[in-house]
Please model this.
Amino acid sequence: MMSYSYYLTAILFLFIFISCGSDSTVDACDASSYDEEIPAIIMSFTTALQNYGTDPSDENCQSLRSEYSAYLNFLKNYDECPFTFNGGELKDAISQGEMDIDDLPCS
Model:
């Protein structure tokens, strides 16, 4: 049975990152690029999460693992940027997400 920690982690990430605006000046982190890319990445992750929640097949599990990894890898690119929340907290959230991926019962 799927743990609710996946849903809670997803909600945490969505709440924190979807609200990031592009009102900061363009810097080495390129906030505008982040703002353009994050909605599609969140949508892919959320869709995979919903599909797995509805049908916890191995195929959906692999898809969730792939989309979750892509999402975390995207966030790693921005963990030192001034427009994200505290970098240490983001790194902790990413580490927790990686543990969640490891806990997925995919073959």
